Amino acid sequence: MGQVEINRTKFDSQFRQIVAGEIRNAKNSIKIVTGEISAYDYLDLRNPAEEAARNGIQIEVYASGPNRNIINRLIYNGINVYTGKEVPNEHFMVIDDKRAIISYKQENRVIPTPMGDRMGMSTDNSDEVSRLLSSFESLKKSAMKETIHGQDPLETILDNNIRQE
Amino acid sequence: MIWIAVFDDKHRQHFQSSRILRSLLNTRFHNELYLSSYVLSEVLAYITYLQKRRERNEDEREHFFELCSNTILDSRYVNILYATETQIGSAIQFIRKYPTIPASLSDWLSLVLMVENNIQAIQSFDKDFVSMIKIDGQFSGIKTNIVA
């Protein structure tokens, strides 16, 4: 495969289909570096990730600014989350330490899409994958491993409703 | 629908539905809640319908959607199930097979998804689920908890 740029399509559907396919095809591990984990709002990515974790795939996520509810949900579903102050220049996902999908910023993007101004690339180039794995380990080293805390938003809303009765 | 009543504070079953869902989260056996994407669509269609009829204003719609998003989408206890073409095909067959039961595609699909995902209990305000489960042996393992 080498290094292949992922075609830009409306709604970024092709990018998400490729990412979801890679998650489903993972045999052992998935390592992700991201910012706010906004991709987790996409159910077509969230569902395969949670299913993979349930099936024993070790998933680790480094994120620089995720929402507490997302952190809690990830951990609840067996996904390890590390948070740190360092904002990664590139977002990526390494599958089985062999393949990777990189999401990088491109200036002057013509088509605005839900994924923002990012472009995607998939690679199985071993040097590139090693570089990404080193980057992941480096970010993880300076990060904090998260645990679930705080009330679930559903519980909060239900409790508020009941209090008002 | 229980979800709708939870999010709509003017709904006559608002408090009742909140208590029901809260009680489901309080036990270690029932801390996973499932709904189909069709049910999610119905929940969102409800507020749109009321806004079109001017029974709810923009702020109320926004508030409803915010609650829906913060809970159904963000809660760690809630899972959305997606139907395949095959499952939709099965649900349509049930509508055709049992015309006397006033159940929607979404209702039949919920039962099909429950069977295929090994989900054992349904919580609803809709008593037609009892008839649906009784009329076809394929749903015999499903327990109903219907609050009229």
Folded structure, characterized:
The complex is a heterodimer of chains A (165) and B (148). Chain A is an alpha+beta fold and 165 residues long. Chain A is 37% helix and 24% strand. Chain A contains five helices and eight strands; from the N terminus they run βαβαβαββββαβα. In chain A, helix 3 (68-76) links the parallel strand 3 (58-63) and strand 4 (80-83). In chain A, helix 1 packs parallel to helix 2. The radius of gyration of chain A is 17 Å and the shape is globular. With 148 residues, chain B is mainly alpha-helical. Chain B has two domains: 2-81; 85-146, no CATH class. In chain B, the strands form two sheets. A two-stranded parallel ribbon of chain B has the order 1-2. Chain B has a two-stranded parallel ribbon with strand order 3-4. The longest helix of chain B has 16 residues, at 37-52.
Please name the defining characteristics of this protein.
heterodimer, A: 165 residues, alpha+beta, 8-stranded mixed beta sheet, B: 148 residues, 2 domains, two-stranded parallel sheet, two-stranded parallel ribbon, 7 helices
Instruction: Determine the structural class of chain B based on helices, strands and strand pairing.
Output: mainly alpha
Taking all Cα atoms into account, the compactness measure Rg of chain B is 16 Å
**Number of helical stretches of at least 4 residues of chain A:** 5
Strand fraction of chain B equals 5-15%
Name the pair of protein chains with the most residues at their interface, and give those residue counts: A-B, 23 and 21 residues
Give a count of the beta strands of chain A, DSSP E runs of length 2 or more.
8
Strand order of the largest sheet of chain A: 1-7-6-5-2-3-4-8
- Helix proportion of residues of chain B, in percent? 55-70%
Order of helices and strands of chain A: EHEHEHEEEEHEH
Q: DSSP helix count of chain B?
A: 7
Q: Major beta sheet of chain B, specifics?
A: 2 strands, parallel
Side-by-side strand order of the widest sheet of chain B: 1-2
Average pLDDT score of chain A: 89
